[in-house]
Write a structure and sequence with these properties.
The complex is a heterodimer. Chain A is globular and about 65 Å long. The two termini of chain A are 37 Å apart. Chain A has one domain. By secondary structure, chain A is an all-alpha fold. The longest helix of chain A has 31 residues, at 65-95. Chain A has helices at residues 16-33, 35-54, 65-95, 98-104, 108-135, 147-169, 174-191, 203-209, 213-227, 232-252. Chain A is 73% helix and 0% strand. Chain B is an alpha/beta fold. Chain B is 30% helix and 26% strand. Chain B has helices spanning 55-62, 85-88, 106-114, 123-129, 145-157, 175-190, 202-208, 226-230, 234-237, 282-294, 309-317, and strands at residues 7-18, 29-40, 44-48, 70-75, 91-94, 163-167, 194-199, 211-216, 219-224, 244-249, 265-270, 273-278, 301-305. In chain B, strands 5-6-7-3-8-9 form a six-stranded mixed sheet, sandwiched between helices. A four-stranded antiparallel sheet of chain B has the order 11-12-10-13, with no helix packed on it. In chain B, a hairpin with a 2-residue loop joins strand 11 (265-270) and strand 12. The radius of gyration of chain B is 24 Å and the shape is globular. Classes of the chains: A mainly alpha, B alpha/beta.
């Protein structure tokens, strides 16, 4: 077989939107095919949901156990996918030169990051569907007015955690990214105010969790899905985290 | 430096400083100090240098993967540091470490990358041509070094680029794959592609390159066609003859005294293996053949070698391990 003659100058990229959608689909499928990632993204949040509905840990917080638990579980899902899962994947992509290679294709660095954000949103949407499907039969009945602010804040939380995940993945070795993001997932998941509200945490932790992205997202989602209102303070804290981590990632992210 | 009419890549006075964070002593380090080169359409231009000479940094600046500290770069008439997807669609890159995701399978990966281009090369054609179909069900992680290299080459070619960057393309290739890849590179060059080859393997450069730039310690130290560089013999430059080496195998213990001029050193390196080195002329070869005829000697094997690019390279950049 011979190589066909080269096309005349003017070889063109596929349209930007198509490139980003393709990368988003590719990254989503890669995440969903990864067994460890699925455990982190779906199995552990579901176990936590069941655990919180059969124990009295959340009793007396102004709602049924499941109504208090589900918003925190959704916040945990955002942290799993955007921070831990995406951070680890990006860290290893960096190690193997995948980021460098894709940067040289028409996708480019911007398209690559956009594709990763899209994949985080796609997997998060799937997590919301699964958690909702399990939580509704358990008696979850959020106010209808809570859905719009709740999902909006969930996306904002995912943005903050994506920026933090990229910051870690782009500045330290992938093994360190693996250790840091998994450790923080456990620490913030247990003590960061994400599934267990600040008032149930040790006194020492209560003062700071409001300012953590985990605590802010957990609180904001509980207020939205329990009361149907927006916690402006928590939303502001999430915005600040997104801006700071995003700026730091842009400044210090190393592509190789 | 050459000045062709429409170069695909033109680098002038490239400077790259790294640090202070990347260096141990907290000082800025100049890893490329003034490299210039030009690559033409329909040619293989090789950038040759020892490990750490600055080859990869130079090429990564040209690919837009690293920002430069000084100098100018024009890739297809654009500055790669600021160009967008339009330029990247016309340039193919094969990285030294492949840059392919370990969990991916070859064909879905190639289809994915093909989707980034408006009119990519057919995936099946490259898969067949590079023998990727024989390992299409294996994930990248489990491929051999040579299989990864062939897949990385396919990924670089899928967009049907006008310019192709190859970083150590024959690393890890078995002889058959190497032959296959070299043939393909030759065809691509003949079809008008501008190919920029980075390598520390002199043999690759000698076989493939139309024009060679040798860089050392971040600077240009020599350039020319392979033939021109081979002429850079210290003996030639001082006005004497070109040094060649003749190897032949014949019965052991031949007395060749007086057959060849004194300037040519003849020795029997082991029983029956002879080496003659020096400014050999056609007359010398005729004298030797006449002596063989007169003494009824038929050599079992016979070869004549000029200096290799490796000899030239070692002359220029020194023999110190670095």
């Amino acid at each position: 077989m011979t190589v066909p003659p080269i096309s005349p100058p003017g070889q063109a990229p596929a349209p930007l939107l198509r490139r980003i959608l393709l990368q988003g689909r590719y990254e989503s499928l890669t995440m969903l095919r990864n067994g460890e990632q699925l455990i982190l993204a779906v199995v552990l949040p579901l176990l936590a949901l069941v655990g919180l509905t059969v124990t009295p840990l959340l009793d007396g917080l102004g709602g049924s156990r499941v109504n208090v638990a589900v918003p925190g579980i959704l916040a945990l899902c955002a942290m799993s996918t955007a921070f831990t899962g995406q951070g680890i994947a990006t860290g290893f992509d960096r190690r193997y030169g995948v980021l460098r290679f894709l940067s040289t294709t028409p996708l480019g660095r911007t398209g690559l990051i956009a594709g990763k954000v899209l994949a985080v949103l796609a997997v998060l949407a799937l997590q919301v569907v699964v958690i909702t499907a399990v939580a509704l039969p358990l008696g979850w009945n959020p106010p209808a007015a809570g859905w719009l602010p709740g999902l909006g804040l969930l996306v904002l939380g995912a943005a903050a955690f994506t920026a933090l995940g990229l910051l870690v993945a782009g500045t330290v070795r992938p093994e360190a990214t693996l250790a840091i993001t998994n450790l923080l997932w456990i620490l913030l998941g247990a003590l960061g105010g994400i599934v267990i509200p600040a008032e149930r945490l040790p006194a020492a932790a209560q003062g700071i969790v409001h300012y953590l992205p985990s605590g802010a997202l957990g609180e904001a989602l509980r207020e939205a899905f329990l009361l149907g209102t927006i916690d402006v303070g928590a939303a502001f804290i999430l915005l600040v985290w997104t801006a700071l981590a995003g700026a730091a990632a842009i400044r210090w992210f190393k592509w190789n | 430096m050459r000045s062709p009419e429409s170069p695909v890549l033109s680098i002038s006075g490239l400077i790259k400083d790294v640090g202070p964070l990347a260096t141990l002593d907290g000082k800025m380090l100049r890893v490329v100090s003034g490299v210039s080169l030009v690559a033409e359409r329909g040619q293989v231009t090789a950038l040759l240098g020892a490990n750490g000479a600055g080859k990869t940094t130079t090429i990564e600046c040209a690919q837009g993967l690293q920002t430069r500290s000084g100098g100018t770069i024009s890739l297809l008439g654009q500055d790669p540091a600021t160009a967008g997807a339009d330029l990247r669609a016309r340039v193919g890159v094969m990285l030294q470490d492949g840059g392919l995701p370990p969990s991916a399978r070859p064909i879905p990966l190639l289809r994915h990358i093909a989707g980034m281009y408006a009119s990519p090369r057919p995936v099946d054609e490259l898969v067949g041509r590079l023998g990727i179909d024989t390992f299409s069900r294996t994930s990248v992680r489990r491929l051999s070094g040579g299989q990864k290299q062939r897949l990385a080459l396919a990924a670089a070619l899928i967009g049907n680029p006008e310019v192709l960057f190859l970083d150590e393309p024959s690393a890890g290739l078995d002889p058959q794959s190497r032959q296959l890849v070299f043939e393909l590179i030759g065809e691509l060059r003949d079809s008008g592609m501008g190919i920029i080859l980075t390598t520390h393997l002199m043999d690759d450069a000698q076989r493939l390159a139309d024009y060679v730039y040798i860089i050392d310690a971040g600077r240009n130290v020599a350039e020319g066609t392979v033939a021109q560089l081979l002429q850079r013999d210290p003996a030639v430059e001082s006005g004497t003859e070109h040094i060649r080496t003749l190897f032949f195998e014949a019965p052991a213990g031949l007395d060749l005294t007086g057959v060849l001029p004194e300037a040519i050193a003849v020795s029997e390196t082991r029983a029956g293996s002879y080496v003659a080195t020096g400014p050999l002329t056609p007359q010398d070869l005729a004298s030797l053949a006449a002596w063989w005829a007169a003494h009824g000697v038929m050599p079992g094997s016979l070869s004549l070698e000029a200096r290799s690019l490796e000899d030239v390279f070692l002359d220029i950049s020194g023999k110190d391990i670095r």
